Amino acid sequence: MPVKNGLSSIIVPSDRFKDAFKIALAMVITYAIALSQGWETPFWAGFAVVFCGLTAVGDSLNKGLLRVFGTLFGAVAGLALLALFPQDRWAFLIAMSLFIAFCAYMMGGTTRWYFWFMAGITVPIVTVTGEPDAVNNFTRAVLRTQQTTLGIVVYSLVSVLIWPASSRGDFEGAVRKLMGNQRQLFARYMARLTGAEGEPRGEADAAQLRGEVTRTLGGLRTLLDNAELDTYEIWEVRRAWRGLVAQLDTLNGTMEAWRQTFHELGGIDAQRFIKSLPAVGAELDLRLAAIEGMLDGQAPTHQPVDVACEPDRTQLAELSHFQQSAVLLAISHLVELERETRALFEAIRYVRGFASPHEAGPVADVPAARALLDPDWLIGVLRVIAVLWLNLLLYIYVPDLPVASGLVIVGNVLAMLMLLHPQMRPFVLFWPMAFGTVVGAVAHVFIMPHLSGFLGLGTMLFVTVFGLVYLLYSPRQILFRFCGLAFFMVLVSIDVHQHYSVLTAVNLSLVFPMILGGLALTGYFPVSLRPEDRFQAILERFFHSSAFLMATTGWRRDRAPSRLQQWRKAFHLNEVVLAPGKLAGWTRTLPAAALGSASQAQVQDLVTSVQALSDRMKTLMQARAAHQSDAIVRELREDVRGWRVSVQEIFARLASEPEAAQYASYRSRLDAELERLEARIAEALDRADDGGLSSAEGESMYRLLGAHRGLSEALVEFAKQAAAIDWPRLREARF
Amino acid sequence: MNLFPSEFAFGGIYFPPLLIASIAGLILAWWTAQVLNRYRLSRFFFYPPLVLLALAVIYTVLVGTFVIPS
Predict the structure, then answer these.
(1) With an 8 Å Cβ cutoff, is B49 touching chain A?
(2) pLDDT tens by residue, A479-522
(3) Is A427 on the interface with B (CB under 8 A)?
(4) A386 is a domain residue
(5) pTM for this model (two decimals)
(6) What DSSP string describes A103-152?
(7) Does A704 lie in the same domain as A595?
């Protein structure tokens, strides 16, 4: 057996070998075609092979198509700008900056960001490399598009014909893993709710599962984009799959909202008040298991059955009003989970072909509206433009700057890439760039002059590309791999009219520190991108937005908000929803000097409490949108108003002084407020009962109260975590 | 007194004096910033990154004028 295994490992090559072989072969073919046709700058075609050469056919096709169409769009836009401003340098540069800013902005919130990225980087390539002869601009635009298409076509053919790998497995595997994790989380939450013994792992593992779910969900849409392109079965029902991915997002949100209610349930025996809880739990578990089975290709052994999730009203009346609100809130989330898992079951039954052919397909995905203005993304765009102008001014005003056009082009490419990773420090690129320069320079100076034909050139290309991809295959080495390959292609300068010059390598090695210097400088000006500054700014905006959203709960119900009010509310809700994720990203890069006496774990705990606040705010907004009894609203208006104003003031203060959060003071204030409201609700209910309060209205009111209480509890938890942070050190100015 | 610094030659390649002075200026400014950070003196500045830039310019002028030989 070991001999057989050993042989099979030799005969069946690894993914690493296959990818390296395919990229190297595609590179040689690409260069052969480009040189035989007399197309200049073939390294552009090589770039397309390197950057779009991914393992699965769908991944490569998707990225390749985005690259081709992005390049085409950018090239056309570049020529149009040149035609519009032929004799006016500054008007042209301003128009070009605006176009790049637009592309950079459009990169946000879409899986097709690569299209906009390519469009944004192509404009300077077309307009700057053609200088000083304007006739070159058109030739450059055509050549760039032609070479990019060549690279993509060649790599696509190679990947389809040699060891083709489908993207379907990755996508379906991710959905399967996601459902498995959700099922585990559901079982865990049910065990917690029913007080079942024997939970094998703790909260840390649940947090890890939640993290995995978030990560998998984040990449699911891109995986679907890829799978659509190389798998007909996915393409055929692509709209249903997209709808399904949106359903998975919603399910995750409901699970989180449900989990958040456990804190308020406290020591309440939920099973006593929700008699059908075990039946609901068992049904949902069977349903999730059936979904997993269908994803594995097995026909569903279980069909969804109706389970009512109702409170035992007699038992419920024994609880205080706030405890009742917590139970009802948990029930409402369970009902949503029931509805969502049923819809998910139907959707998966349809896409996996287990539904009857006469059955109508599930509701397809409605394209989500673009995210509203995101200030952090706008800051990133501002940085792209700052880098562009810094390099443009150097290009225009510093005479004899080595490879000045490269400064503008590569600076723009890196600035746009850093938009996706704002936490990345520019000097992380230093060693990969140095490595790439050395590889390219050695090949250009010591190997290229000895080659006399394409056999030698092709062999050198194949060996170098294969070696770099094979040796730097790990995702951790991706910067070294891309820089190594890109610099190798630029520096060896293979062209129709071959020339050799050591100056190419020397000039490039002088330009790269300048590019990194420009990127580093724009990390401080015009807006500071230091982790401690971003962390504070995002936290401040989070509390400002929370204060605004609290204020909206006081808007009159009988008057529809204006368009501007609706837009502002949506903007602030977006801010509150996105802030915890952004804070988590910046937390990891906070320097020790900024942490002071606090630890990374304590800052993470603070971010977790911000996440809870964000979730509670979303729940409050949803509960507020539901219909409420006029009588109850009238009775409790003043009390709820007092609470709202008080929370709003706290949010406003925390925006400027997060250290002002006092755990003991908040706790005692909240407890006193809850006690007072408890009494007022009892009185109000007594009076409202005389006027005929429907059970739906009563439950709606309880849900709203539960949401208010949940938010206040989350605020108290934030105060507890905020005490551990060394705020003066975090705020302290440093170099 | 001739205030124009002379060019540097390394291995037969001539480098402009301003390049050398600015590299030295940046290194000195960075080192000063590290020292100020180390002793938490940076908190007395309104916006330290701007101070770093100013220090780099000052050091570059000083090195270019007094250190690099004419």
Answers:
(1) yes
(2) 999 999 999 999 998 988 888 888 888 888 888 889 999 999 89
(3) no
(4) no
(5) 0.85
(6) HHHHTTT-TTHHHHHHHHHHHHHHHHHTTT-THHHHHHHHHHHHHHHHHH
(7) yes
